[in-house]
Amino acid sequence: MTTKPAAAAARATVYGYPRQGPNRELKKAIEGYWKGRVTADALRATAAELRRGNWQALADAGIDEVPTGAFSTYDHVLDATVMVGAIPARHRAAVEVDALDGYFAMARGTQNVAPLEMTKWFDTNYHYLVPELGPDTVFTADSTQQVAELEEALALELSARPVLVGPVTYLLLAKPAPGAPADFDPLTLLDRLLPVYTEVLADLRAAGAEWAQLDEPALVQDRSPAQLNAAARAYRELGGLRDRPKLLVASYFDRLGDALPVLAKAPVEGLALDFTGAAGANLDALAAVGGLPGKRLVAGVVDGRNIWVNDLEKSLATLGTLLGLADRVDVSASCSLLHVPLDSAPERDIEPQILRWLAFARQKTAEVVSLAKGLTQGTGSIAAELAANRADLASRANSPITHDPAVRARAAAVTEADGHRSQPYGERVAAQRAHLGLPLLPTTTIGSFPQTGELRTARADLRAGRIGTVGYEERIKAEIQEVIAFQDKTGLDVLVHGEAERNDMVQYFAEQLTGYLATRYGWVQSYGTRYVRPPILVGDISRPKPMTVRWTTYAQSLTDRPVKGMLTGPVTMLAWSFVRDDQPLGDTARQVALALRDEVNDLEAAGSSVIQVDEPALRETLPLRTADRPAYLAWATEAFRLSTSGVRPDTQIHTHMCYAEFGDIVQAIDDLDADVISLEAARSRMQVARELAAHGYPREAGPGVYDIHSPRVPSTQEAAELLRAGLKAIPAERLWVNPDCGLKTRGWPETRASLENLVAAAHTVRGELSGS
Asked: Is 654 strand, coil or helix?
């Protein structure tokens, strides 16, 4: 394919970039500040240095317009909350005393003040802090951060574009504040919010902004006529302002649908659209509305969420078509590069051939620059890049690494019966209760216990060869002994071994399954200072040998109480990995499910009476468009049942989900047919328990009474109050008592105190139920 040069030079840009730094410098500085080892000034200096380094790296790579405002010390939605002055009443005093400490109080809470609720950013594994708004919310503009970052970039003589969370998305992401009517709609505050955006945009214009980007990803979801009218009104008002930069309204993660004509008609100067995956439908939709005459189109043709190299020729064809639909076409990734690792170059443990199939943030930036050059100067200007790209794509497509005939034959032989337990829940629950003999309101934890500095040091020493396998395993055994002894002494009813041997709940399994690759430096932000290294699904999946049986069996030998076998479910194994894009996700999920089925059956054979298969990502992977959801939920729930349905009726299957909105997937939770589900509920004050009750959920459930994403220790009284709230929705004989999530990120002192209070709360409420 040969393309002619574009009429106007196409600019290369991106919407955001990984924040952490090459060695997670930001994480270390923030956590050092929390521990008192780093001053506020030093933390701010580290953040500023990382921002400048990111912008300079982008400019040096050929990016023509760098984003500002996309960098965050914790979360960009929290930054928007500060920008619009929507500080919850309980945090105002802390913010007034010290802005930085108040900011972190909203993010993490304090011993006396609860944090903002946290949930998933659309269908990604990034978590944002949910704005709390009510009828009495008063917005006040504070553009300090946005202006300062723009001025930093301009001082480097860079062309810079501030990026803000758009007003409609901000309100659609918000929830009613405590004390507000439960049916309060934050979107009714739009008329109060727009003057704040007016002021911020004027401040940015005064500081030198030529363009400002307003992100509206909420508009790629199904929206009511009233919500679309609100979007039209918002951009009619903002577009009509005189004292403002040019406006670029951005959407990503899916197709815009009915929102596209609304934005296309708005009096703004440009749109930024996603043209990857399902969002590729934006191409035909844009043509159907007559394009964007007289406007700028920023075309997201490089996948910002996955790590495979771009098909440059395919992207150039898309860009060529778009040239006739807008006044000018610029090139970008489909969304912020926040969702991929920084750089694949340091990955020395991955075979060079496979490494060429991968593109992290720096490689994607280079692809964006090449595409802009090819669009501007013609394909001859990037002939070498195109030839190398064709070779890399062919290498992956033809590689035996990606196909295992035995795995495919086994998956093809799965029958309907393989995905169902031998007895319905109503019959097997009696067998489980008789076998386990648990008290009313049984207590447990989700799985992981604190990953101490000693554990991390031991793991690093093993990798570096400073200790051998025997010494490392003795350290793991000692940790398991401590965890079991503590749980026994505290009085928990169903124990866990603590997962001391696991670096991550997905990576640990990925390193033991064929078809997966693990990275050494592929860190991606999950929330705040929590970074994960998603493994890469590169080929067909199988389990060569048992993965968890040894450590679970050892833990069970230390106690007479049941110890849960702990596995990560097939959907989460996909959602928290970088998945294959060369076959349907459902096919990959079935392969993972069969590997996990083997592990579940081996755990049961080794004596495990309780086995937990976690699926925290079931909700986050839900397609953003309602029409796409039934097909996803069909293969997702089938994969879970395939993993767990081979056990005896008296073996109790648990699952766990956290930090997502569960109300619209309660039927799918029911369809999993797990015997017990534990869910995050502390920050939302038992909302999920009420949703389960409204559905008529018939099985046992443990809505969390301990928010593990905050350092605060909930009192016995607080946990008991949450437990009583749960009992209003779920009968006592079906209610479990547990934290919201695993305890890996917590310290031992707070963990001990919190779990002791949790057990005491369960005893208190049991006494109330029995009248004693």
From this structure: strand
Residues 206/212/215/219 CA torsion (nearest 10 deg)? 110
Q: What is the largest CA-CA distance in the chain?
A: 84
Cα–Cα distance list, 356 to 173, 350, 388, 389, 542 (Å): 38, 10, 9, 9, 24
- Give me the pLDDT at residue 685, please: 84
pLDDT tens for 2-29 read 555 655 799 999 999 999 999 999 999 9
Place of tokens 């919010």: 193
User: What does 381-417 look like in DSSP terms, one character per residue?
Assistant: GGHHHHHHHHHHHHHHHT-GGG--HHHHHHHHT--GG
DSSP 659: S
Q: DSSP character for 761?
A: H
- Say whether pLDDT at 659 is over 70: no
For the chain, the first-to-last Cα distance in angstroms comes to 81
Q: Smallest Cα–Cα separation from 755: which of 352, 464, 445?
A: 445
Q: Which amino acid is at 448?
A: S
> Measured at the alpha carbon of residue 367, what is the angle toward residues 361 and 370, in degrees to the nearest 5?
145
Inter-residue contact 117 to 129 (CB < 8 Å) = yes
256: exposed, middle or buried (Cβ count in 10 Å: 0-12, 13-18, 19+): buried
Question: Are β-strands 530-532 and 524-527 bridged in parallel, bridged antiparallel, or unpaired?
Answer: antiparallel
| Span 127-145, pLDDT tens digits | 999 999 999 999 999 999 9
What number of other Cβ atoms are within 10 A of residue 27's Cβ? 18
Kind of pairing between the strands at 565-568 and 270-274: unpaired
Contact 662, 691 (CB under 8 A): yes
Tokens encoding 198: 């007016």
Active site residues per annotation: 709
Q: Are strands 118-120 and 700-703 parallel, antiparallel or unpaired?
A: unpaired
Contact 233, 171 (CB under 8 A): no
**Residue 642 forms beta bridges with which residues?**
none
Amino acid occupying residue 688 = V
For tokens 């013609």, what's the residue? 378
Q: Are strands 66-68 and 175-176 parallel, antiparallel or unpaired?
A: unpaired
Give all strands (DSSP E) within 716-763, no chain letters. none
* Paired tokens of 122: 């659309």
> What are residue 542's DSSP bridge partners?
514
Are 277 and 311 in contact by the 8 Å Cβ rule? The answer is no
- Chain centroid, CA 299 distance in Å: 24
- Measure the CA–CA gap between 341 and 21, rounded to whole angstroms: 10
Is residue 373 within a helix (H) or strand (E), and if so which, with residue range? helix 361-377
- Cβ-contact 16, 364 below 8 angstroms: no
Q: What share of the chain in percent tops pLDDT 90?
A: 91
Whether 558 and 484 have beta carbons less than 8 Å apart is answered as yes
Q: Tell me 37's DSSP state.
A: S
Cα–Cα separations (whole angstroms), residue 199 to 203, 205, 240, 747: 6, 10, 14, 43
Q: Which residues contact 465 (CB under 8 A, 6 or more apart)?
A: none
Nearest to 702 by CA among 552, 428, 492, 551: 492
pTM: 0.90
Closest to 314 in 3D by CA, of 280, 270, 337, 290: 280
Give the closest residue to 623 by CA, choosing from 677, 664, 674. 664
Q: What stretch of H or E contains 162? A: strand 160-165
Per-residue model confidence as pLDDT tens digits over 571-598: 999 999 999 999 999 999 999 999 999 9
Q: Between 585-605 and 405-412, two packed helices, what is the crossing angle to 10 degrees?
A: 90
Reduce the DSSP state of residue 448 to 3 states and report it.
strand
For residue 461, what are the CA distances in angstroms to 419, 464, 672? 42, 5, 40
| pLDDT tens figures, 88-119 | 999 999 999 999 999 999 999 998 899 999 98
SS3 623: coil
